[in-house]
């Protein structure tokens, strides 16, 4: 990939992504994106990975994977079955990555996103917290080593406090990645979550430095890039400063809708007019990257 | 109250606030705060309202109330019992306000905060959404009229997408307040939530204008004011521009703790060193208010 390829998440268009949606790849390429960030398909999703890979190659699109974990698929779980299912799932992600030729698998791979799994923040005791942290470190050490052997990288992503109680801040994620200390584990930062949990986007990026292997440039409210209050130029300059040349993906799936009583956190169908807006988002980040690199 | 009294939320110190905690009021006054934002006490909280009122007067502290609603206490509920309990609760809030001499009762008074109530975002149909919006408008119309008659104001607060699916953005809240159109209903804006849902803090404040009856100045990550990325000066200037002279409260209850596997969304005991930090927060907002008003 060239420096800083820009990609788009598959669920910007459709969820789940199946054999019926392969034509989307040509559209995504035509918009100008260089990779797709694909939610790791579930076995029941009817997605032929060989067909998909061919289609990616035809369209000269790269692919990154986004892991889909949950409480029953969690290497940090206090329940042994859930823990094992979590480990088996991460292995499955590596298998899918191999079949598609993807190098990076990102997401909250520790396994416990809360809101969408329907669990409220739980008042863990200090001891329980320690054990969860230990399981996270040990579990990710195992997963990282498996990835390293395959030439892959898991990119662990902190989520905001409402989506997980395991890893929220960039500081925590840096500590975690350093404790695991394996080339098979890097950091995925998402400005949507950072905007809620970090003191400073710029300082967090600088601190994280070369640990970052994937980056998600999202507006504070997850609207189209440029439509919110994200200080994009500052973010891009910080990425330049740490010489980040890895992938950057967009996930502007807020949708253009402010009806009363609308469940914003819930996934909805794309806006009808999203294609030109996605193209604007892409051009905004590409031109910001280009101009910030000029003398 | 003088222009822009600055207050602090009671759960910065303790939860629940009971007869045992009346001495905190002297401490809060000594720090320089002008009002306390008190969570509406539950009947079982053992808080003697007459004693509290005396104690507030002795310490020259004003009081605002923060309503505590939930799924079973929701004027928007599809369940009639929950709906009635929601209405009864808002009446109870007015009673408490009368007994304490409070004028404003703020919060997500529509009744359905999600995360702490343990419900994941629910995929309502368009029709269900409409009915929920109607119940919100009708329910708040009844509540607003009851407040107006008593010389009180309910201040409805949009929460971020993870805490409710009824009212998230300032735009939605403006629409709601205008539809209800009653002096007994105003707007409570909290920069913590706005930072996640609005395109621009400044534009939202200007749009909301005189509908705002209470304001919460919170950092993006809910740390001590000044420790995060909130553009405080811009926010204060916008409030000046709309000639907002109402109360502003602080709720920096993030706590100073970044252990791995820490449930940040869960309430925790105060930092041991919080008093000087609260004083710094107070001085920062007061001095920003003062200097932004100078020629």
Structure at a glance:
Two copies of one chain form a homodimer. In chain A, 40% of the residues lie in helices and 12% in strands. Chain A is of the alpha/beta class and 295 residues long.
Structure in words:
The structure is a homodimer of 295-residue chains. With 295 residues, chain A is α/β, with parallel strands linked by helices. The model of chain A has no long low-confidence stretch (mean pLDDT 95). The first copy, chain A, is 40% helix and 12% strand. In chain A, helix 3 packs parallel to helix 4, helix 7 packs parallel to helix 8 and helix 8 crosses helix 9. In chain A, strands 1-2-3-4-5-6-7-8 form an 8-stranded parallel beta barrel, surrounded by 6 helices. In chain A, helix 1 links the parallel strand 1 and strand 2. The two termini of chain A are 24 Å apart. Chain A has one domain: Divalent-metal-dependent TIM barrel enzymes (TIM Barrel, Alpha-Beta Barrel), CATH 3.20.20. Chain A has 9 helices and 8 strands. Chains A and B meet through helix 4, helix 5 and helix 6 of A and helix 4, helix 5 and helix 6 of B.
Strand and helix layout:
The structure is a homodimer of 295-residue chains.
Chain A: E1 6-9, H1 24-31, E2 35-39, H2 49-58, E3 62-66, H3 80-100, E4 104-107, H4 126-149, E5 153-156, H5 170-180, E6 185-190, H6 191-197, H7 201-208, E7 212-216, H8 232-241, E8 248-250, H9 274-292
Parallel strand pairs in A: 1-2, 1-8, 2-3, 3-4, 4-5, 5-6, 6-7, 7-8
Helix pairs in contact in A: 3-4, 7-8, 8-9
């Amino acid at each position: 990939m060239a420096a800083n390829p820009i990609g788009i998440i598959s669920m910007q268009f459709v969820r789940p992504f199946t054999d019926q949606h392969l034509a989307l790849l040509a559209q995504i390429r035509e918009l100008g994106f260089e990779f797709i960030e694909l939610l790791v398909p579930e076995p029941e999703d009817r997605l032929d990975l060989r067909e998909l890979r061919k289609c990616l190659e035809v369209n000269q699109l790269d692919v990154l994977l986004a892991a889909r974990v949950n409480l029953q698929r969690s290497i940090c779980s206090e329940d042994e079955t859930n823990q094992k299912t979590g480990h088996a799932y991460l292995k499955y992600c590596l298998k899918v990555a191999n079949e598609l030729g993807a190098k990076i698998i990102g997401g909250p791979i520790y396994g416990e996103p809360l809101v969408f799994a329907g669990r409220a923040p739980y008042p863990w005791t200090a001891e329980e917290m320690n054990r969860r942290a230990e399981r996270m470190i040990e579990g990710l050490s195992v997963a990282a080593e498996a990835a390293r052997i395959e030439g892959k990288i898991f990119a662990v992503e902190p989520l905001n406090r409402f989506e997980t109680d395991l890893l929220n801040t960039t500081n925590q994620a840096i500590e975690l990645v350093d404790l695991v200390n394996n080339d098979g584990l890097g950091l995925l930062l998402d400005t949507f979550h950072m905007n809620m949990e970090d003191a400073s986007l710029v300082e967090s990026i600088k601190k994280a430095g070369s640990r970052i292997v994937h980056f998600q440039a999202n507006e504070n409210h997850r609207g189209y890039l440029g439509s919110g209050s994200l200080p994009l130029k500052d973010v891009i300059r910080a990425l330049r400063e740490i010489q980040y040349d890895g992938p950057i993906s967009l996930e502007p799936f807020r949708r253009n809708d402010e009806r009363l009583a609308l469940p914003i956190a819930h996934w909805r169908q794309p806006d009808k007019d999203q294609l030109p807006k996605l193209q604007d988002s892409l051009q905004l980040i590409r031109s910001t990257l280009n101009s910030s690199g000029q003398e």
